[in-house]
Amino acid sequence: MPTAFPHDSVGLVTPQVVHFAEPLALACGRSLADYQLMIETYGELNAARTNAVLICHALSGHHHAAGYHSVDDRKPGWWDSCIGPGKAIDTNKFFVVSLNNLGGCNGSTGPASINPATGKPFGAEFPVMTVEDWVHSQARLADHLGIEQWAAVVGGSLGGMQALQWTISYPERVRHCLAIASAPKLSAQNIAFNEVARQAILTDPDFNEGRFQEKGVIPKRGLMLARMVGHITYLSDDAMGEKFGRELKTDKLNYDFYSVEFQVESYLRYQGEEFSTRFDANTYVLMTKALDYFDPAAAHDGDLAKTLANVKADFCIMSFTTDWRFSPARSREIVDALTAARKNVSYLEIDAPQGHDAFLMPIPRYLQAFNSYMQRIKV
């Protein structure tokens, strides 16, 4: 391993494409005739195939969760603080699988992929996805890898919803579920934020009803606005204040409507600009809808305890005090339902000022608890 990488890094990693030829029936009533998933793996699968951990990503996540794709990479994968030798998800112990979900825009089949029926990008014609659909596709991935049961399924935010759904859809195939900064369903306010973000994209003149690739354009303004709205909700008021306050980017106020005068304005515009160059607009719309639709308790008249009655896994639920997008109260709903269903559950509410994005950050108390739980898992 090149000495440029930290000692606790998984080092250089190579993404893999896994093809599936069998049709996948979807909750929306449609199906995908065939599809591919982009994945990365870290560590080694043991002979008994009992040490596998699945990483489920959040809204704008992807398969590249740890390590580096080249020696020139400036940043590692999005959850590198938690995955690697000696880290919470210890690759000396676990075989870790991370993927880009169906409908994504980082190598898995999605709206930007070519529709074999038309020879053109799927665009907005790509089927609507649900968390349950993703879990079914992930189960096929487990079959392909020869993994009958996950030692753990782990995810934050939307990833936590997938981890929870795994225990419901495939109770015998998950020993431990770690749902971090997540919720059993979105609140009306969360759905509203998603709708504002979608409308920013859908009403962009360059969106072209989802066929912008055919036109050779991207709905850049819509994507920028969607990301800016989202990013505000991922940070807490304290985090925004500490990071930016009311600091000016310029030496003086210009008293107009167009200048970028405050540091926070500059930051949001940068985040929006960067995001618009790497993320597919149709995928953003699809992912936010999957968030909105997630409500496993709906099948049992809203009774989450009844929904979880048949799960077999042990659970670790973690939340962050200043996360107002997925507040601790929402995690406690899961804990209360698991307790009512007489399941094994550990819960930790971490005092952290960073807001929803805290689950991505190397907060000592968080990493300590995460590591402690993962060490308990027998393989």
From TrEMBL:
The record marks 325 as: Important for acyl-CoA specificity. This is Homoserine O-succinyltransferase. It comes from the Bacteria. Pfam families: Abhydrolase_1. Keywords: Acyltransferase, Amino-acid biosynthesis, Cytoplasm, Methionine biosynthesis, Transferase. Homodimer. Transfers a succinyl group from succinyl-CoA to L-homoserine, forming succinyl-L-homoserine. Its main location: cytoplasm. Residues 51-360 form the AB hydrolase-1 domain. It catalyses: L-homoserine + succinyl-CoA = O-succinyl-L-homoserine + CoA. The active site is at 157 (nucleophile), 323, 356. InterPro entries: AB_hydrolase_1 (IPR000073), AB_hydrolase_fold (IPR029058), HAT_MetX-like (IPR008220). It is found in: Cytoplasm. The keyword Amino-acid biosynthesis applies.
